[in-house]
Amino acid sequence: GDSVTQMEGPVTLSEEAFLTINCTYTATGYPSLFWYVQYPGEGLQLLLKATKADDKGSNKGFEATYRKETTSFHLEKGSVQVSDSAVYFCALISSGGYNKLIFGAGTRLAVHP
Amino acid sequence: ETGVTQTPRHLVMGMTNKKSLKCEQHLGHNAMYWYKQSAKKPLELMFVYSLEERVENNSVPSRFSPECPNSSHLFLHLHTLQPEDSALYLCASSHGQGASRYEQYFGPGTRLTVT
Questions:
Q1: Interface test with B, best of A98, A100, A103 (most B CBs within 10 A)
Q2: Closest A-chain CA to B103
Q3: How far apart are CA B67 and CA B47, in angstroms?
Q4: Residues B35, B47 contacting (CB under 8 angstroms)
Q5: Which of B6, B31, B91 sits opposite A99 (nearest CB)?
Q6: How far apart are the first and last CA of chain A?
Q7: pLDDT tens digits for range A51-62
Q8: How many Cα neighbours within 13 Å face the side chain of B75?
Q9: pLDDT tens, B58-84?
């Protein structure tokens, strides 16, 4: 079945450091891919998306490129801030089920001043 | 209120209690979802409703009973739960069709503790 694998956290960085959170997927065809973010005490928020191969999703300084050859959708940010501390989830739309999102386990990011 | 709201935010219940979780969306969506978020496990989709009709039920135990009286409201009725049901329960909504149907908007969740 469809699945998403993320790097395990926590990821701990200093402010202004470069961020990469790895995400790879297994799926039938070419599903739409997403990154969601969950801040402490809140629900998930859509951060960015890509709907086809080579698409680059971007938002709030975060970017991710849909790579079908490596089945990857790694999240990057050039300079993180303390306010970016959260849990990040990679997800895809499953080919089975109604609008069914398959999530990775999540990666916790802690940014220190 | 805007977006997706959930009440209560926190709930502690005994295994013999009956309680309900409520979700309300103010986004004009016509699909709604219940997810379970447990520690160190990926989010698990529990139920999906489209136009008030259940379209997904992912092998969820019968002690969880969803209800969708209209496209803006979704309930999760709980009875005779087990301690392992303690988790964060998230509600989400989306458009049912069109290019944005895959973008789900989440509420803040209800933190449930079963004692």
A1: A98
A2: A46
A3: 10
A4: no
A5: B31
A6: 41
A7: 999 999 999 999
A8: 10
A9: 789 999 999 999 999 999 999 999 999
